[in-house]
Specification:
With 197 residues, the protein is of the alpha/beta class. The chain has one domain: Flavodoxin domain (Rossmann fold). The chain is built from seven helices and seven strands. A five-stranded parallel beta sheet has the order 2-1-3-6-7, sandwiched between helices. β4 and β5 form a beta hairpin. The longest helix is centred in the N-terminal third of the chain and has 15 residues. The radius of gyration is 17 Å and the shape is globular. The structure holds flavin mononucleotide. The site of flavin mononucleotide (FMN) has 17 residues, from α1 and β6.
Length: 197
C-alpha cells in the first residue's frame, strides 16, 4: 500500500485534557495502525497562533507578486498552504465554542484560503478549488449533544465542509464527534466513536 502523509491540526488549548485532541489523536493512531499513513505533521494552533486578517495582509493576499514586506506577511499563510498541499489526509480537531469552531481554527482557515492559490475561476467565471483529492477527518468535541439542540444547530462541520468545497477543493470529508463532555460522569469511548473508521 502506498504510504501517505497526514496533517494533524489541534485547536484546543486544554492540552492532554482536551477531548477533541484525544479524538483527533485516536484517528491518527488508527490510520497509522491500518498503515494508511506513515508520516504525521502536527500543528498545535494554540502554540503557533495564526495571525488575524488585517488590512495589510488583505493587500498581500491579493497582490502577486507582492513586495518583500508583503511576502513576509504571507509567511504563516504560505506554511499553511504548503502543509495542506503536502498532506494526503488532514485530521482537524476542534472544541465547540459558542456553537462554532475554535477561533484559532477559523483563523487558520482564513490563512489557508487564498484566491489564485487554493481556488480560482475559469474563463466563464466558474469557481473551483485547486487543492483537490484530500481526505479530511473532523474531530469535534462539545459539552452538550447535537441531538439536544433544535434541528439546524450544526455550524462546525457544515461550515468547514462548505469552505473546503468552495475555496479549497474536492475532498472526502468525515466527521466524528465526542459529545456531552461536560455532563456528569462523562467517559469517552473513542473506539466506539471510531468504529467505522
Ligand atoms: C468558551 C467555551 C464555549 C463553549 N461553548 C459550548 C457550546 O456552545 N456548546 C457546547 O455544547 N459546549 C460548549 N462548550 C463546552 C466545550 O465544547 C467542551 O468543554 C469540549 O469538550 C471542549 O473541547 P476540548 O475538550 O477539546 O477542549 C464551551 C466551552 C468553552 C470553554
Amino acid at each position: 500500500m502506498t504510504k501517505k502523509t497526514a496533517l494533524h491540526i489541534i485547536s484546543s488549548a486544554r492540552g492532554n485534557g482536551s477531548y477533541s485532541r484525544a479524538l483527533s489523536s485516536a484517528i491518527i493512531n488508527k490510520l497509522i495502525s491500518s498503515q494508511e499513513i506513515d508520516t504525521v505533521v502536527e500543528r498545535d494552533l494554540t502554540k503557533e497562533t495564526p495571525p488575524f486578517i488585517k488590512e495589510d495582509l488583505v493587500g498581500a493576499f491579493y497582490t502577486n507578486p507582492g513586495s518583500v514586506e508583503q511576502q513576509q506577511l504571507l509567511k504563516y499563510a504560505d506554511t499553511v498552504v504548503s502543509d495542506v498541499s503536502n498532506a494526503d489526509i488532514i485530521v482537524i480537531g476542534t472544541p465547540m465554542y459558542n456553537l462554532g469552531m475554535s477561533a484559532v481554527l477559523k483563523a487558520w482557515i482564513d490563512q489557508l484560503v487564498r484566491y489564485g492559490v487554493t481556488y480560482g475561476y475559469d474563463g466563464d467565471g466558474v469557481r473551483s478549488g485547486l487543492l483537490n483529492g484530500k481526505k479530511i477527518y473532523l474531530a469535534i468535541a462539545s459539552g452538550g449533544r447535537l441531538a439536544d439542540w433544535p434541528n439546524g444547530h450544526e455550524f462546525i462541520a457544515s461550515h468547514i465542509e462548505a469552505v473546503i468545497r468552495a475555496y479549497v477543493g474536492l475532498a472526502e470529508i468525515h466527521t466524528f464527534r465526542v459529545e456531552g463532555t461536560v455532563m456528569p460522569g462523562f467517559e469517552p469511548d473513542y473506539q466506539k466513536i471510531l468504529a467505522h473508521l
